[in-house]
Write a structure and sequence with these properties.
The chain is of the alpha/beta class and 353 residues long. It is built from 11 helices and 10 strands. It has a 5-stranded mixed sheet, with helices on both faces. Helix 4 packs across helix 11, helix 5 crosses helix 6 and helix 6 packs across helix 8. The longest helix has 30 residues.
Length: 353
């Protein structure tokens, strides 16, 4: 089935400048990302103005590299797609204005894409390294990142029903915060995973917020519990100046306990939601989906429940242009278009209950 032909996709919602050329929503011709992680590490988090300026610096070189890697021309391109939200307003505007200019100059349709929809449709991208079947409907998807954690049901393409969402903090934000408390570098998610892998004891137990029978999530209480535990062991508020240092083995044990709490809740609620919806596939997406423990635990639980897990390789879980191109293919076929008045939508939702 043709899904829009070849689409040039631009992603700049946060701190990654991504441009990709994707064919029919599945085949990646090129996917180039300029990361700002090292730039924001000193501040322990993303500085919005700095992020927007970095997008301005890198977006043209990223485009040039994407063209060189794809080996195609503008005559082959059917449309230009761009993330319209959610995300940081300044970062979004850089990508939107760049994409509008490209579409206008080359006479191509402009397709706006929800960033969260992109994370979901990353599961439809083919992977040259391994066979990746397309998810079977109905699908229940867990999207978990630094700014978002939610469960959504898909009965068909572009048709969503929100099943549950975080009532306070996203899982990725909790990873970053606790990583800082443990004295680990930014971003906290990968560092906590690495630290936890070195744990020889697994007796640190942090609370789980089950919120009754709902499919909603809460990680604020977990962050508070971690902060109090770390403060009690360091004589301060964490591993900051003036606090007693934590031994490496203790950091590993605390990281392991925290990660187990997050993964347990995410996996348990996702499988319960999938069973309730009669899902035939489970999809995992978003930056936190790169966490190996989460991927392995959810895959095992989904298999035990008789539902395959479809999860992109880690590089396609973090922000990138290919995921926007994948979603844009279906939006393009559905007739979604934007004019030159397209504006950023920093709080754009994917679905409502």
């Amino acid at each position: 089935m043709t899904r829009g032909g070849l689409i040039l996709a631009v992603e700049s919602s946060c701190d990654e400048t991504g441009i990709a050329l994707v064919e029919d929503g599945r085949r990646i011709h090129s996917n180039v990302v300029a990361s700002q992680v090292a730039m924001h590490a000193a501040a322990g988090g993303i500085v919005p103005e700095v992020a927007a300026r970095a997008h301005l610096r890198w977006i043209v070189p990223v485009l040039d590299e994407a063209w060189a890697a794809a080996g195609v021309t503008w005559d082959d391109v059917s449309a230009v797609a761009v993330t319209e939200g959610p995300g940081l307003a300044g970062s979004l505007l850089v990508g939107i204005n760049f994409a509008k200019t490209l579409a206008y100059v080359h006479g191509k349709p402009l397709v706006p894409v929800n960033h969260l929809e992109g994370h979901l449709y990353a599961a439809w991208l083919a992977d040259e390294a391994r066979e990746v079947p397309e998810p079977l409907f109905p699908v229940v998807a867990l999207i978990v990142s630094g700014g978002h954690t939610f469960l959504v049901e898909m009965r068909d393409h572009l048709a969503y029903r929100l099943l549950g969402e975080t009532v306070d903090d996203a899982a990725g934000e909790a990873f970053d915060k606790v990583g800082r408390l443990l004295g680990l570098p930014y971003p906290g998610g990968p560092e906590i995973m690495r630290a936890a892998a070195g744990a020889t004891r697994h007796d640190v137990v942090f609370p789980r917020a089950w919120l009754g029978d709902s499919f909603d999530f809460s990680f604020s209480g977990l962050k508070t519990a971690a902060r109090r535990t770390i403060a009690a062991e360091t004589g301060g508020t964490g591993t900051s100046a003036g606090d007693s240092p934590l031994a490496n083995d203790r950091v590993a044990e605390l990281a392991d306990g925290f990660q187990e709490s997050v993964v347990d809740v995410l996996v348990t609620k996702t499988i319960r939601a999938a069973r309730a919806a009669g899902a035939r596939s489970v999809v995992l997406g978003g930056g936190v989906a790169a966490n190996r423990v989460l991927r392995d635990r959810l895959a095992a639980a989904a298999q035990a429940a008789g539902m395959p897990l479809v999860v992109p390789r880690p590089a396609l879980c973090t922000d990138n242009g290919a995921m926007i191109g994948a979603a844009a293919a279906w939006r393009f076929e559905a007739g979604t278009r934007a004019g030159l008045d397209l504006d950023a939508k920093p709080s754009l939702p994917l679905a409502r209950r």
